[in-house]
Amino acid sequence: MTPQDYAYLSKLLNERSGLQLAGDKQYLIESRLLPVAKQHNCGSIGDLVAKLKAFAEEPLRQRVTEAMTINESFFFRDKTPFERFQDTILPHILKARASTKRIRIWCAAASTGQEPYSIAIMLKQAAAELAGWKFEIVGTDISTDVLEKAKAGLYTQFEVQRGLPIQLLLKYFKQDGDQWRISQELRDMVQYRRHNLLDDFSSLGTFDVVFCRNVLIYFDAKTKQDVLTRISRAMSKDGHLLLGAAETVVGFTNLFVPVADKRGLYVHAVETKAQRVPVAMSA
């Protein structure tokens, strides 16, 4: 792959997904795009780039973008965001939404579904406290391939061993050949939609909780600011935003402020500390 090919593919990825490739990611492009090149009768990455330039085929451009998008995910990844969801967010919601008993949760860049299904499992585990409540979990991603896997809810032995306690595996999954399929009840709790974070969010509606983890780190400063601004518009006034451990709003927007002593958890800047007094809740 020539430097010109690398520059073209990096620009294509950035324009279509907002993600930026560092200068040393040639190996990543080659490993992910060589199978795509072969599928489209291209003998090399250079031939694939030439085809992209010559024909500008939208399905091929989409396939290239999806192949280069990072899709790392596992159940209860990093633990802390899920602890925040249980010890801070749910108690607040139980109090603030007592009259409507409804909550909407958005998992942006949901990948193969482990994050939204982890949330669904937590809600099922807290069924006694949440009796009568209605939940809508929306998982979005730019890749149709990973969304199809998420909808199927079928995972390998390796995937279910990453972060999923054995008791939850046995309770909510059934063996399907040499893989494990999550229960239909939990699959029904999550809606999956293809969505690009560079696009307008208005069609998704308003959410009480937004998980947007480990994706902003791949955006440039301007894109981070833009995405965070639009996330703020897609959140309820007293909503909560959860970012990844290596991510922050500081320096990119003044629309959110961190919740004291709750790393990775943010609320609208207009919210006050007095408005979120946690209530004890069993696991």
Structure description:
The protein is of the alpha/beta class and about 280 residues long. It has two domains: about 5-70, Chemotaxis receptor methyltransferase CheR, N-terminal domain (Chemotaxis Receptor Methyltransferase Cher, domain 1), CATH 1.10.155; about 80-275, Vaccinia Virus protein VP39 (Rossmann fold). About 40% of the residues lie in helices and about 20% in strands. The chain has helices at about 5-15, 25-40, 45-55, 60-70, 80-95, 115-125, 145-150, 155-160, 165-170, 185, 220-235, and strands spanning about 100-105, 135-140, 155, 175, 180, 190-195, 205-210, 235-245, 255-260, 265-270. The strands form two sheets. It has a seven-stranded mixed sheet with strand order 6-2-1-7-8-10-9. Strand 7, helix 11 (about 220-235) and strand 8 (about 235-245) form a beta-alpha-beta unit. It is globular, with a radius of gyration of 20 Å. The chain starts with a helix and ends in a 15-residue tail after the last strand. Residues about 270-283 have low confidence and may be disordered.
